[in-house]
């Protein structure tokens, strides 16, 4: 007891009939502390600001420390840099290119065609058709053979006209009650492109990359008969990276590729790729940038293009083909004023390269089975107008 040290302050506990009050006496001064009852019932004092003394610390002297609030930045997020949302943190170019065809198409991965779609057959002999995925795979293999040292992008695939069915065990079920494994689908029409970005050129400030692709449409096959030669469309050309418009020439397009096996299909595709003259195609497109139409000439071209749709048959046969309908022509006229990349100049003039791209841009609204034909027609028509401006040509009708 003699060695026991006592605190210099004393705690006096006073009581009455109403409440208990804690008082600390130190250095001759009495410091009043609120009771727990007063703390909880006093409306004038915020509970968060009240001082609460626990029994184990009633006799200890502790200086109140002011808590400083600091904004803490994670080590990987400097405070002087803008923090982007997760959706904007993608590496590389954040620009998402537009589809090469729109209309009523949707984009699907190759795995969807391989794993989720059935393969149509010829009804009379139950022989299978060449499936969409087989067409894509055999062309991809051919591209690898022709361009072994270049970068080849995965195929961009777009499909339309989904054909639905069901398995035999679901014959009596309502559509809403079908399970996934009881549903069957395939797509009547399919188009795809394969880009080779390492082979590129620039025209009028637009980057073009070499592109290979094809179209398959089951509606052009007689699936109710026996298996015979199947029809495909195949092309090699360039794609304008600015707008993803396709640029196709005559020697790079095979409108009616007939094959009964995938080996025959690949062989004919290889022939087209080997015969394609890319340098000539680029030169012809660059020449379009040197020729201009005045606003009056462009208006004449649009007006005659609409009249062309209603010409008598015998008159239309004497005029070069224009494979675009009124809806396309209306889009071209609108884009002449509003398109961000290919609209008119301040004085109303427009070069034929921009006119060509207005046509291919409007062609994106075409169905898959007419898409490539119209794309080629846009290039042939643009070259024909170029000739009409320089000399006598059947295309003079569109400018007269």
Structural description of this entry:
The protein has helices spanning 36-41, 110-116, 132-146, 262-275, 278-288, 295-308, 313-316, 326-338, 352-362, 368-390; strands spanning 10-15, 20-26, 29-32, 106-107, 121-122, 127-128, 156-166, 183-203, 206-217, 230-240, 246-247, 253-259, 292-293, 350-351. It has 400 residues and is an alpha+beta fold. The model is unreliable at 1-31 and 44-95 (pLDDT under 50). It comes from Kaistella carnis. Pfam families: DUF3871. InterPro entries: DUF3871 (IPR024353). This is DUF3871 family protein.
* Poorly predicted regions: 1-31, 44-95
Shape: globular
| Average pLDDT score | 80
Report the radius of gyration as a whole number of Å. 38 Å
Helix content: 25-40%
Class by alpha and beta content: alpha+beta
Main beta sheet, described? 7 strands, antiparallel
The domain count comes to 3
Q: What is the subunit organization of this protein?
A: single chain
String of helices and strands: EEEHEHEEHEEEEEEHHEHHHEHH
Q: Figure out the total of helices.
A: 10
What portion of residues belong to β-strands? 15-25%
Distance between the termini: 125 Å
The tally of strands reads 14
Pfam family, one: DUF3871
InterPro entries: DUF3871
Protein name: DUF3871 family protein
Organism: Kaistella carnis
